[in-house]
């Protein structure tokens, strides 16, 4: 019982830190974010912060775990079509819906973070955001003549490049177009050329 209450308190502390990082990125941007600000906003000590994270960069990169969790728990179970194109369009739609949960300025900061703090964890093929695509391409390669000789990791990279490019364009246009509709249209054009 004591261990359970300690675990709940630890989860609340980490959640407070994570929520503060998200809020403060929106308010000040990544470059101006400090550990002192995070601790003050989260109402935790620096010791508590360092219990969970080595530095500010690690706390910011934690944001990427949320998209992986979303893809593993929400997206993957819904990619059940016997048609690769349908699964890929649905994947892209889920990606766009995830992006739209946040405001444009926050998403811009996350893109900056991806560029500034890029590491092997972000681009790992073991991340659900990649693994789900790789598994989809592997599952359908044998039944698709155009894909038989293609590497599934390369296909997943290419598909994510298209999705990220659409998202990036939406961000530089300050969200001035319908991300879901435009994304779906462009993904279908890409798939018509691929499949």
Strand content range: under 5%
Estimate the helix proportion, in percent: over 70%
CATH topology of the largest domain: Tetracycline Repressor, domain 2
- Number of E-type strands: 0
Overall geometric form: elongated
Low-confidence stretches: none
Average pLDDT rating: 87
What is Rg? 19 Å
Organism: Natronincola ferrireducens
InterPro entries: Homeodomain-like_sf, HTH-type_Tx_Regulator, HTH_TetR, Tet_transcr_reg_TetR-rel_C_sf
Protein name: Transcriptional regulator, TetR family
GO molecular function, one term: DNA binding
Q: Mind explaining what this structure looks like?
A:
This protein has 195 residues and is mainly α. It has 2 domains: 54 residues, Homeodomain-like (Arc Repressor Mutant, subunit A, Orthogonal Bundle), CATH 1.10.10.60; 133 residues, Tetracycline Repressor, domain 2 (Orthogonal Bundle). Helices cover 72% and strands 0% of the residues. It contains 10 helices and no strands. The longest helix is centred in the N-terminal third of the chain and has 27 residues. It is elongated, with a radius of gyration of 19 Å. The mean pLDDT is 87. Keywords: DNA-binding. InterPro entries: Homeodomain-like_sf (IPR009057), HTH-type_Tx_Regulator (IPR050624), HTH_TetR (IPR001647), Tet_transcr_reg_TetR-rel_C_sf (IPR036271). This is Transcriptional regulator, TetR family. GO terms for molecular function: DNA binding. It comes from Natronincola ferrireducens.
């Amino acid at each position: 019982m004591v261990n359970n209450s300690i675990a709940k308190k630890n989860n609340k502390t980490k959640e407070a830190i994570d929520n503060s990082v998200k809020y403060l990125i929106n308010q000040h941007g990544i470059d101006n974010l400090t550990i002192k600000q995070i601790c003050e906003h989260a109402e935790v000590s620096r010791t508590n912060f360092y219990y969970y994270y080595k530095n500010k960069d690690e706390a910011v990169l934690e944001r990427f775990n949320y998209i992986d969790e979303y893809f593993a728990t929400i997206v993957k179970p819904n990619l059940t079509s016997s048609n690769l194109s349908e699964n890929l369009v649905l994947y892209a739609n889920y990606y766009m819906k995830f992006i739209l949960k946040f405001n444009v300025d926050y998403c811009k900061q996350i893109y900056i973070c991806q560029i500034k703090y890029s590491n092997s964890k972000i681009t790992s093929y073991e991340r659900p955001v990649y693994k789900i695509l790789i598994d989809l391409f592997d599952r359908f390669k044998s039944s698709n003549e155009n894909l038989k000789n293609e590497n599934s990791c390369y296909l997943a990279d290419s598909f994510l490049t298209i999705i990220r490019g659409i998202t990036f364009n939406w961000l530089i246009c300050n969200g001035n177009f319908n991300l879901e509709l435009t994304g779906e249209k462009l993904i279908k054009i890409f798939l018509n050329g691929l499949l």
